[in-house]
Amino acid sequence: MLVTHILGDCPGCGGKNRFGNVSVKGDHVLRGCMSCKYSTTVWLPEIRKKIVYLDQFFFSSAFRGGEQRFVDAAQRIRHVSDLQLLVIPFSSIHEDETHQWRGFGGKNKEALMEFIKATSGGHEFEPAYEVERAQIIRAFEAFLAGSSAEFELKESDAIKGNVHEWDDYFRIDVGVYFKDIELIRALKHQSVENLVGIFDRWRQSTNTFEQDVALEIRAAGKNYIDSYLEFVARIARGDSAALFNSPIMSNVVESMLHCLPKEMPPEESSQVITRFFVSDHFAQIPYQWLSARMFAKLNDMIRHGAFNDRESAQQRLSGFYYDVKHVATYAPYCDAFVMDKPMAALVADPRVALGDRYSVKVFSLNNWDELFTWLDAFETGMTAEHKAGLSAAYP
Predict the structure, then answer these.
(1) Is-contact 280 149, C-beta < 8 A?
(2) What number of helices (H) and strands (E) belong to the chain?
(3) Is residue 272 packed enough to be buried (19+ CB in 10 Å), middle (13-18) or exposed (0-12)?
(4) Are the CB atoms for 322 and 172 separated by under 8 Å?
(5) N or C: which end of the chain has fewer CB within 10 A?
(6) In whole angstroms, what is the distance from residue 138 CA to residue 92 CA?
(7) Do residues 199 and 63 lie in contact, with contact meaning Cβ atoms separated by under 8 Å?
(8) Do the domain assignments include residue 77?
(9) What is the distance between the alpha carbons of residues 390 and 66, in angstroms, rounded to a whole number?
(10) Of 115, 111, 120, whose CA–CA distance to 163 is shortest?
């Protein structure tokens, strides 16, 4: 066997310094000998890790190393993660943002992505579009069954594998990034221009906050339907490229159709899906609930005088769509979320109330000391059983 940590002589063959830990397998340590077939299992205590999301600004700041407070926080978080007390998965949004970075000070996007993966210990969230789709399908199934519209979170919808296991000594990274970086960069720029372009209309609006939320959710539902109809129309015209370059969201309605009886007529299927997208079941989906309120909050800020200068607004809001997607997609599945100060202020608004609704702690530079206090509490609270597990798994 390939022994990773030598513990001493083999109890089987007596080989000197040939016996030790081979690997950690979730809930146990496999021990074996480099000379003979002797092996044994050491069982580890059950653990429940805290799930922490680090926004892109945190990873970028810690990686560049210009501000010691970010470096210190990253080191502290990794230490508590090594103690098997928390986990920091990375997401597809981290990948998208990282691969758009042009590099700075001799550092490049590949090194930044490796830093993110190393900090995360290789743990991943499901891609954002898969989380979005999973939420919609489960809400649609509840809608069809006549069940409550209240959405029940399932960790498996958002996180790959079981993160509540003891980490092995090595991680295998086979990830390859296939997306068109320049296209994503162009679409990001265009989306911000479009957003700022509607600010004049928002300033003239007399809608209430809840009316703006309703409009956002209605527009989201319409986008899913329109995207699917455009996909179908392209296929009908013989445009086979639609299978490869249509927006991912165009597949959502197609997935929903598989939830309906095969014998249901197309017109009735269309009516059922349309009713769902204007239902409370759709409005209660975490991604929709949060993103609608975050955009409504921005709308409210615009009406109260924020971002009056167009050029400045485009610069300051250049990452707004990504920030919303980070929070709306993954925050409901986390115990804590580290974000920048403007976004922390936005989600603290009582009408968004991220922390209260989804029981997630929000940390930013506004309460940086509280982040360290929160982390320290886990280490000081370790049980003797957990400490024994650490000693057995990571001598």
Answers:
(1) yes
(2) 19, 8
(3) middle
(4) no
(5) C
(6) 21
(7) no
(8) yes
(9) 33
(10) 120
**Do residues 77 and 86 make contact, with C-beta atoms less than 8 angstroms apart?**
yes
φ/ψ (deg, to 5) at 36: -125, -175
92 lies in the same domain as 162: yes
HSE at residue 100, side-chain half, CA atoms within 13 A, is 18
Confidence of residue 184 (pLDDT cuts 50, 70, 90): confident
Q: Return the structure tokens found at 94.
A: 């981290």
SS3 153: coil
- Could you tell me the strand order of the sheet in which 361-363 lies? 86-87, 50-54, 336-338, 361-363
d(CA 215, CA 209): 10
| Predicted pLDDT of residue 175 | 65
Query: Do 374 and 349 lie in a common domain?
Result: yes
Q: Give the Å distances, CA to CA, from 274 to 150, 236, 252, 279.
A: 19, 22, 13, 9
Residue 391 CB neighbour total at 10 angstroms: 9
On whether both 100 and 34 belong to a single domain, the answer is no
Categorize the per-residue pLDDT at 174 as very low, low, confident or very high, splitting at 50, 70 and 90.
Answer: low
Q: Looking up tokens 């997609």, which residue turns up? A: 329
Q: At what angle do helices 250-257 and 209-236 cross, to 10 degrees?
A: 80
* Arithmetic mean of pLDDT, 23-44: 96
Could you give the CA distance from residue 197 to residue 195 in angstroms, rounded to a whole number?
5
Query: Facing residues of 1 across strands?
Result: none
> What is the rounded CA–CA span in Å between residue 190 and residue 196?
10
Q: Which of the 8 DSSP states describes residue 23?
A: E
Structure tokens that stand for 179 in this block: 């997306």
Provide the Cα torsion 156, 346, 186, 89; round to 10°. -30
Distance CA 209, CA 91 (A): 30
Q: 35 and 142, same structural domain?
A: no
Q: Which amino acid is at 150?
A: E
Overall pTM > 0.70: yes
Give the domain extent around 29. 5-43
CA distances to 147, 275, 281 from 285, in Å:
14, 15, 7
What are the beta bridge partners of residue 210?
Answer: none
Asked whether residue 172 carries a pLDDT value surpassing 80, the answer given is no
Conformational region of residue 152, where left means phi above 0, alpha means psi within -120 to 50, and beta covers everything else: beta
Confidence bin at 307 (pLDDT 50/70/90): very high
What domain count does the chain have? 2
